[in-house]
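PROTOCOL LOG
Step 1. Enter all chains and additional molecules of the complex.
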Amino acid sequence: MSESVTVAQALTRASGGLAPGSITIARLDARLLLAHALGVPPERMISLGAQPLSEAEQSVFRDLLRRRRAGEPTSRIIGRREFWSLDFEITPDVLDPRPDSETIVEAALAKLQGRAAPRIADLGAGSGCLLLALLAERKDATGVGVDISAAACRVAAGNARRLGLCGRAAFVCMDWNSAASAGGFDAVVSNPPYIADGVIDTLAPEVARHDPRGALSGGADGLDAYRRLAPAIAALLRPGGFGAVEIGAGQRPAVERIFAAQGLTFRKARRDLAGIDRCLVFTSESST
Ligand SMILES: C[S@@+](CC[C@H](N)C(=O)[O-])C[C@H]1O[C@@H](n2cnc3c(N)ncnc32)[C@H](O)[C@@H]1O
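Step 2. Run joint prediction.
Step 3. Record the structure below.
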């Protein structure tokens, strides 16, 4: 029989053993995992400190901690990720949304200022995080997310429903190049796969083992998706529209060249918190 343990004690013990030297992060991880084990929202944990854990709850929590120690990201274990302060469901079929990708949302929101009722396309939507963050901010906007993975489209549609955005967002399973016949969009956002294939297995196990290959693989030089995306974005934009795409470290010159060859004019780059160029903004020809 297990000894009696309260929520507060379980958290203190777990955070000591999760990430030595990084107690704050470990405590956050432990809190999310324990909330998941108890089936309560993380924000309720603060009021549960003195509550004793049953043996079954302790056993579930121990199992979650074991998975975390083995290198599985907390977001993957609990199946949720916060992005742009919104709660997204994630499954093994979608990329775990990254804080760096919020630079695309920031860039797009800035460019959308002054445009009424914008139509937005998200190419390679994954969990739907980019499009849904934009629609959450812009109540007059509508959008379409496209992904080649049917499973990803189902996850994105579920997120749209939970966030109360499904009336303004549609997710369609298709290759982004097949979507190019639609046209007339004010904005196209995209975070495509951009890791060179030879590098994927050298990435942190949290990424290499847990993000889907199709969300990472950018071909031999990491640029395959941009070569295919650039003509799709040029065709989808209405005159005066803009594209905001995420890039990997050091890819800016090559991506600028690829987009220029499709008549897309580079406007600005946005850096992530590490100071790396992360988002490039292009406009269709003749726009300002
Ligand atoms: C890096 S993930 C980005 C997901 C999400 N936008 C995000 O930022 O978290 C790239 C996505 O592009 C999708 N994808 C890859 N090639 C595609 C193609 N040719 N057409 C449509 N989607 C594609 C993948 O399935 C994956 O979901």
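Step 4. Note key features.
The longest strand covers residues 237-246.
The pocket of S-adenosylmethionine is lined by residues 94-95, 97, 101, 124-127, 129-130, 146-149, 152, 175-176, 191-193, 214-215 (CB under 6 Å).
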